Amino acid sequence: MKKLLFSLVVQGLGVGFSFSQEKLGEVACIYNTSTNLDSTTAIYQRLGFQKVNENSFPSPWAQYSDGSLLIMVRKDNVKYSGLTYYTTNLAAIVTQLEKDGIVFSKKTGEADPIKRYYFNSPDGLSIMLADNLGGFSQPKGISLLNMNPADFKTAEKYPNKQCGVFGEYCHPVKDLDKSIAFWKKLGFTVKSKMDQPYPHAILSDDLMIIGLHQTSNFDYPAITYFGIQTAERVNLLRKQGLSFTNMQGAANVVTTGWEGQHFFLFSLGM
Q: In terms of domains, do 70 and 110 share one?
């Protein structure tokens, strides 16, 4: 699994990003709900994230970032996890997506203080578009797609000293080509595609990196980080109270945050 994911990302290196059209928004984040923001904050801080924003409107929420990835967590008893884009041009984007064949599963009402539109990928990943009311900013840090390959084996240069380098927000798919076609409608471009050991691809819109994996090896979306000395970093995280499950070796692990968000921490192991 880890060699597969790493080979995908490495093949994407050197492929320059180019924005053809900003279709979804100005800020992208992974969005979750939690019943306890204090516990969520403590876990993300252990994983190398800092709280960068918080408010209680329209309900308590907080944003966390390691400089490369933004995670939004809202206090709510209803469990939710997905990908969110914030935009100052919501109505126009929604109209264009509907013309492109996107069907929204939920729309907020006229009286709602923040407008939100929800739709799903062919494999059930929830995507939300929401008003950007200001104060949200897109991280500009290093990911495995734009990191200098010479820095891969220098842990001191990783933006996240606990997790490593952000690689992708991955999720399993049933039909890779169908999923790729869907994400292309949203402004994503394919950075890498392979058929072995199973069909898989890396896509990006220059705001988020998505990994599509036609496999039954895992059945949930996961935030994936890569790095050297993963076993040592995992041991330090264990001492801070985090629990891990091994995936194809002691240096490749998965952990789950308070709100149920999975993290893959993989060794580069080149």
A: yes
Residue 209's closest CA among 147, 255, 116, 151? Answer: 147
Residues 119, 10: one domain? Answer: no
**Rounded Cα gap, residues 13 and 258, in angstroms:** 33
User: Do 6 and 123 have their domain in common?
Assistant: no
What is the CA 177 to chain-centroid distance, rounded?
Answer: 20
Q: State the pTM of this model.
A: 0.88
Same domain, 165 and 125: no
**Using one digit for the tens of pLDDT, what is the confidence trace for 70-98?**
999 999 999 999 999 999 999 999 999 99
Structure tokens at 64: 């966390």
Alpha-carbon dihedral of residues 184, 188, 191, 195, nearest 10 degrees? -40
The pair of structure tokens assigned to 6 is: 């790493």
Tokens 């001492």 belong to 239
